[in-house]
Amino acid sequence: MDWLKKQIIEEAVVVSEQVVKLDALLTHQVDPALMMEMGKEFAARFKDKGITRVVTLESSGISVAFAVALELGVPMVFARRKKTLLADPDALCERVPSFTKGIVTDIMMSRQFIGETDKVLFIDDIIANGDAARGLIKIIERAGAELVGLGVVIEKSFQAGARTLREQGIEVESLVQITSLEDGKITFGD
Q1: For residues 82 and 60, what is the distance between their CA atoms, to the nearest angstrom?
Q2: CB–CB of 60/101 below 8 Å?
C-alpha cells in the first residue's frame, strides 16, 4: 500500500494527535483512479466470501464502497445520516456518536435493501473509536444479514475501534494503519 501511504503523506493534514483531515483524499474530494485501486484491493481480499452487498456510511465511504461493489459485481447500499421526507418509516436505525464531528447522529438503512439472505461486506473510510462502525454492524445484524468482513481504508490503530471489532471476531482488513499523529507527523504501521 505504498501508493496509498504516499497519497496520505501528500494530501492529509494532521489537526491534532487524535485527528487527521483527509478532505483532499477521501472526505471532500476523491481521485476516481485511486478509488478504483482501493476497490480492486478490497475486492481481492474478500473475493471468496460470497458477498451479495457492499454497505457503507454516508458520505465519505461511498466512493470506496462503490468501487468495491463494482469490482465484485454486487449492489452498494449506504446508511443515511439524515432522515428525509421520503425515508422508509420502517428503516433500521441506530444512534451513534461521531468522533470527528463531536455529535450524536442517527444512521438508518431501509429494510428493502438488506435482508436475511445477504452476505455483507462493510467498507469504511477511516476507523478511530469504531462507534459508527458498531452502529452499522448492529443494523446489519438486526436485518438478519451476515457480516463477512469490514474493509477500512485507514485504521488509526492507536485508537481502539478496529481492535475491539477484531476481538469480537469480525474480520477487519485495513489498507493502511496509522500508529501515531504525534508532533504533527503521520507514522504508519505494518
Answers
A1: 14
A2: no
Amino acid at site 25: L
For 174: left if phi > 0, alpha if psi spans -120 to 50, otherwise beta; the answer is beta
Whether the per-residue pLDDT at 98 is higher than 90: the answer is no
* pLDDT over threshold 70, residue 113: yes
Distance in angstroms (rounded) separating the CA atoms of residues 94 and 124 = 17
CA dist 172 and 131 (Å) reads 15
pTM tops 0.85: yes
Contact by Cβ (8 Å): 135, 58: no
CA pair distance 114, 145, nearest whole angstrom: 7
Calculate the alpha carbon distances from 113 to 49, 105, 145, 154 in Å: 19, 21, 11, 27
- pLDDT tens digit string along 168-185? 999 999 999 999 999 999
pLDDT at 78 over 60: yes
Give which of 86, 85, 109 is closest to 96, Cα–Cα.
109
Residue 40 pLDDT > 70: yes
- Asked if 136 and 94 touch (Cβ cutoff 8 Å), the reply is yes
Strand 92-98, strand 103-109: pairing: antiparallel
